[in-house]
Amino acid sequence: MTIRVLLADDQALLRSAFRVLVDSEPDMEIVGEASDGAEAVRLAREERADVVLMDIRMPGTDGLAATRLISADPGLTHVRVVMLTTFEVDEYVVQSLRAGASGFLGKGAEPDELLNAIRVAASGEALLSPVATKGLIAKFLAQGDGDDGRDPARAERLDALTGREREVLVQVAGGHSNDEIAERLEVSPLTVKTHVNRAMAKLGARDRAQLVVIAYESGLVRPRVE
Questions:
Q1: Could you identify which of 88, 137, 161, 180 might form a hypothetical disulfide with 176, taking C-beta atoms 3.0 to 4.6 angstroms apart as the criterion?
Q2: Which residues lie closer than 8 Å to 189 by C-beta, 6 or more apart?
Q3: What values do phi and psi take at 55, rounded to 5?
Q4: Where on the chain is 4-aspartylphosphate found, per UniProt (predicted)?
C-alpha cells in the first residue's frame, strides 16, 4: 500500500525538499502541498491523505488549530498528523499531542528519520518518539498549573481500565514498543496490542501518542523533570 503524504508548511523551499525525499520512496507519495492550516485540512479531505507533515507555525490557521480540526472530523479519523518543529524543545509539542497529533519531529531530523516517522505514523502502531518526546511531555505537564498537569476527569476515566491495561498504559507512557512491553510483562506482543487497543477505545485516544498524554494528565505516570 502506498502511503499518501500531505505537506503543510509555509516555506516553499522546505516543501520542495520534502517532496523530493518522499517521492523517491517506492511506498509513499506526495498527494498535496499546503501553505497554511486551513488549506491542509481541505486537502486532507480531498486527497485522502494518510499522513500530514504539519508545520506548527504557519500564518492564518496554524498547525495546532489545523490538527484540532482534523482530529475532530469524523471523516478524517484515518489521518495521522506528524508535527514539524524547528526546535525540538518546543512548548507547543504537548499541545499538539493533545490536539490529536501522532507525534512530532524536528525539522533538522535526518532523512531516514523523517521517512521512518511517516511509516510509523501511517501504521498507527507506535508513538513517534525522538529522544526528547517523553521528557518534553513530562516537562510541560509538570509546568502546567502546579498540580503536575493532572486532570481529575481523566483520572476517573482510568477506572474503566483493567489492572493489566493500566500496567500496559504505564509501559506505553514510558516509550516502550509492544515487543518491549511483551518482554517486560511476559506476555505475547499480540496480547499487548489487544490491551493497547482496548485502552485507546475506553479512553477515547486516537493513538499511542494520546495514551502517553492521558497517562501523564491523569496522574497515572508522574512527570519527572531532570
A1: 180
A2: 178, 179, 181, 182
A3: -70, 140
A4: 55
